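A further point concerns the way the authors explain their paired sequence and structure data. Nothing conveys this as quickly as seeing an actual entry. An entry of this sort, consisting of the sequence and the corresponding backbone structure tokens, reads as follows:
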Amino acid sequence: MISPSKPKARYGGKGRHFEIDQTRQVVLVVQNGRVKWILHTSTGANGATHDGTFHVFRKLAGYSPGRLYYPSYWDGGRAFHGWPDVPTYPASHGCSRLPMWAATWMYSLTEIGDTVYVYH
């Protein structure tokens, strides 16, 4: 029998950052190099979510004009945001979809300038 194990942060350092692991379809909230929370996500289908290092540059309380719920943008129009459907596979247009219940919580955690690492 295989026992589940807590993922380890790929990136260390002081303070908080976010990691989007596209292979596992999870968002890791990392504090001082240790994984503090893990959220299920659905990233972009067909490579629409770019790997790289980004920073939160804009936040919007409520719904965006494109119906993203409480988005925190980190790569152009790509953001953490709530969405009614968050499958276990890549299905978004490039964003990191989160369950609706988690969207406001993630919004409250993110600050302008926070680092977001995206990788496979």
